Hints:
By secondary structure, the chain is α+β, with helices and mostly antiparallel strands. It is built from 8 helices and 5 strands; from the N terminus they run βαβααααββαβαα. Strands 1, 2, 3, 4 and 5 form a 5-stranded antiparallel sheet that branches. A hairpin with a 2-residue loop joins strand 3 and strand 4.
Amino acid sequence: MQLFDSKEKTVLFVSVGQDMDSAAKSYAETNRKLSGLQQKGLIKEYASAEQFLIPQNEQQKRLQRWNNYWTTEKKAFACENIQAAARSFGFKEGTFDTFCQWLNQPFEEQKYQADTNETSARLMNEWMTSADSISMLITQVRISDAAKDSVYQQFSTDNDVVIFDRAYFANKWVSAINDDFYHKDNRPNQAKPLSSSSLRYGFHTDALN
């Protein structure tokens, strides 16, 4: 799914985890960083589904606050007053029954991977995927070439974020190899091996230094 103008270059930041909850935590942190970088003017804009994907521990906190406030007595009081007000304004009896039924239902944590709602699942499928016991959540970022070094360096030590920008990192590899072999005292030099984390990111962090 492409949210930005087709003329603009868009880079994918993929937050990963062993399950959807750990991926959602990484996703929240990734988007928090991107928000800060946007405020500094280093990225133009970004799009994600973060507002729809709440980590399990945060869901539990919100549910606890909801249940602490909406006691059985408060729910009954609210529904009684709504029904009385409805009658006084001439609404048909039972107009707000659906609301009271909703208010009294037992709310539970949302299990994203188990969501059977077709519309919700279709939305989530645009932003999340799973493969080989790894869950991945996508953020689309629009960024200028001039800012990429600064932005990507902010994520160079994050083991749970993968940046997809093949052209940029290919150029960095070529530049690093060129420096290693030809530009150090004009003598060939053995190239540094790529670490497993570098390969996972799709770039060699030494090339950014």
